[in-house]
Amino acid sequence: MALQKQTLVATSSNHAEIIALHEASRECVWLSLQELLFNPRHRSGEEKTVRYLSLFSSLLLLLWRDPLTMATDEPSQTRWSFLFGRKKLPEEESHNEDGSSSNKEEPSPVTNPVQEGNNTALANGIREKPKKSMFPPFESAETRALAESLSRDIIRGNPNIKWESIKGLENAKRLLKEAVVMPIKYPSYFNGLLSPWKGILLFGPPGTGKTMLAKAVATECNTTFFNISASSVVSKWRGDSEKLIRVLFDLARHHAPSTIFLDEIDAIISQRGGEGRSEHEASRRLKTELLIQMDGLQKTNELVFVLAATNLPWELDAAMLRRLEKRILVPLPDPEARRGMFEMLLPSQPGDEPLPHDVLVEKSEGYSGSDIRILCKEAAMQPLRRTLAVLEDTEELVPEDELPEVGPILPQDIDRALSNTRPSAHLHAHLYDKFNDDYGSQILKEL
């Protein structure tokens, strides 16, 4: 059976010239390539020889990549690109007898893995982003390799952190909604003087919920979320750290609207020089590049937000503080927030003795959200320890399906957990309050 004719379209390495070969089979294509390369009448100079060598390599790689396309039922045209894969060339538009166009555009097979997750947009107004390729058209393979390393820090899927699951922090949540969520929901309002804040700083004691707030932003907004730490952008190779910063912001613009979350930003851009500080040249270049890229965000209308978190806000460089326009305190939980945490983590079960939530709230002054979780875990361990002690005293091995149930948490378990757990961040709370008074953002109460 005769094979269908195939059109192969290849380009030279700089895409300067396109040559099409029409042959009946793969063997004919090989013969044509040999004729093109080795016949002396085709080689009139060194420049032309180099061009033909590049063409030969492109077609050879194409045939090796997909040799079965030569036996397809319909003619097709394929262009090979070394960096970005194989792309379909536009087909000639055909017309029906009535003059209408019959050309149907097929959806692009290249999808954005970031969008494959089940990110839940707000029900009131956030539209889904159109699907894009994973990477923008970078100029070099080296830059693309850096982008691939950063792509590991893109949150794929839904972090599933809702605003209502974060107890307390009403001021921080309201400011974040105003700075990030509302400009995405109602972009027509945020222009000119009301253009969105592109830099937001979350500061406060460790364990108070800064990372949870950032994940809530990723959950509630239909944005691409870059979860970046110092290890993501610091490289041992000279010059790569600055390139990583540039590529990071290029990726963020490509996937806009997007959020870059810089966790522990004080490890990346602490104060530069001065007062006997010694700093490596590579560190200065990294900080300078980050400042330049953040300046660039202010000059465009692209919805790219930088959300930074730190436990040491007074260590940040003054130039970075200026670019982080909104500085939001994430404080230790107040009594109402602590009560909500205890009721969520240690709910009273029907038929069991009620747990003393009032005592917990009173005795947990100065505890962070992380400390409260540790306290509740310690209380839940007490009945498990009693059960394990009984099992360990038994000489015979108890089958897994016959293991006894763990008993309920008792009020005395709460007392023991309180005596075994200490707050971890209350001693420096006044420093955060002072920084908040000097630099923080507040929402004034309505008159």
Structural class: alpha/beta
CATH topology title of the largest domain: Rossmann fold
Number of strand segments: 9
Low-pLDDT sequence parts: 1-26, 65-95, 97-124
The largest beta-sheet arranges its strands as: 6-7-8-5-9
Biggest sheet overview: 5 strands, parallel
- β content, as a range? 5-15%
SSE ordering: EEHHEEHHEHEHHEHEHEHHHHH
Shape: globular
Instruction: Please state the CA-atom Rg, rounded to the nearest Å.
Output: 31 Å
Distance between the termini: 87 Å
Mean pLDDT: 73
Q: Which CATH class of the largest domain applies here?
A: Alpha Beta
CATH superfamily of the largest domain: P-loop containing nucleotide triphosphate hydrolases
CATH architectural group of the largest domain: 3-Layer(aba) Sandwich
- Structural domains: how many: 3
Biased composition (Polar residues): 109-118
Keywords: ATP-binding, Cytoplasm, Cytoskeleton, Isomerase, Microtubule, Nucleotide-binding
Protein name: AAA+ ATPase domain-containing protein
Biased composition (Basic and acidic residues): 90-107
Description:
This protein is α/β, with parallel strands linked by helices and 447 residues long. The protein folds into 3 domains: 77 residues, no CATH class; 204 residues, P-loop containing nucleotide triphosphate hydrolases (Rossmann fold, 3-Layer(aba) Sandwich); 90 residues, Helicase, Ruva Protein, domain 3 (Orthogonal Bundle), CATH 1.10.8.60. It has 14 helices and 9 strands. The protein has a 5-stranded parallel β-sheet with strand order 6-7-8-5-9, with helices on both faces. Strands 1-2 form a two-stranded antiparallel ribbon. A hairpin with a 3-residue loop joins strand 3 and strand 4. Helix 10 packs across helix 11, helix 10 packs parallel to helix 12 and helix 12 packs across helix 13. The longest helix is centred in the last third of the chain and has 25 residues. The N and C termini lie far apart (87 Å). The N terminus is likely disordered.
